[in-house]
């Protein structure tokens, strides 16, 4: 169900290294400056090399992103927080007890759990990217979808 684009969106997951970084880059790509977009994790970790590779495949560069935690956010208020892991969901709910902020849980597969060849792992990350892309376009449509 499509809704109006919020003024600010925070994507959050466990490490701010794969899912939330991909989601923020995709929402920025589709909606530019129409909304403020940020991402964070319960813990900070370096942006995952496989995430960088699969986002590069669709022309989005996340290689310079600096991972951050909830506590490192410069802006503590968001209109919408979208969590992508149960751990981030719990943290977001705790954080928003005293603020008017919607929290949505998008249970998103963790591609880092896949082991095997480089190609098998890349395919898992592509599935995560494409799942997030579909959720974003379903939730925040842009009219005729740009080809990415």
Features:
148 residues; alpha/beta; Rossmann fold; four-stranded parallel beta sheet; 4 helices; arsenate reductase (thioredoxin) activity; Ptyr_pPase_sf; Ptyr_pPase
Uncertain regions: pLDDT < 50 for 5+ in a row? none
Rg, nearest Å: 14 Å
Provide the CATH top-level class.
Alpha Beta
Please tell me what the overall shape is. Answer: globular
CATH fold type: Rossmann fold
Percentage of residues in strands? 5-15%
- Fraction of residues in helices? 25-40%
Strand order of the largest sheet: 2-1-3-4
Query: Biggest sheet: strands, sense, closure?
Result: 4 strands, parallel
Mean pLDDT: 91
EC number: 1.20.4.4
GO molecular function, one term: arsenate reductase (thioredoxin) activity
Keywords: Arsenical resistance, Oxidoreductase
InterPro entries: Ptyr_pPase (IPR023485), Ptyr_pPase_sf (IPR036196)
């Amino acid at each position: 169900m499509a809704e109006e684009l919020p003024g600010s969106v925070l994507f959050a997951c466990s490490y701010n290294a794969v899912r939330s970084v991909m989601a923020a880059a995709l929402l920025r790509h589709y909606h530019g400056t129409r909304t403020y977009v940020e991402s964070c994790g319960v813990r900070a970790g370096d942006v995952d090399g496989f995430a960088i590779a699969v986002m590069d495949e669709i022309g989005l560069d996340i290689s310079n992103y600096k991972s951050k935690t909830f506590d490192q956010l410069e802006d503590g208020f968001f209109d919408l927080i979208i969590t992508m892991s149960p751990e981030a969901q719990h943290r977001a709910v705790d954080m928003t007890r005293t603020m008017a902020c919607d929290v949505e849980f998008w249970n998103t597969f963790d591609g880092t759990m896949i082991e095997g060849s480089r190609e098998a792992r890349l395919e898992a990350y592509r599935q995560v990217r494409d799942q997030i892309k579909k959720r974003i376009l379903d939730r925040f449509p842009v009219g005729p979808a740009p080809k990415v």
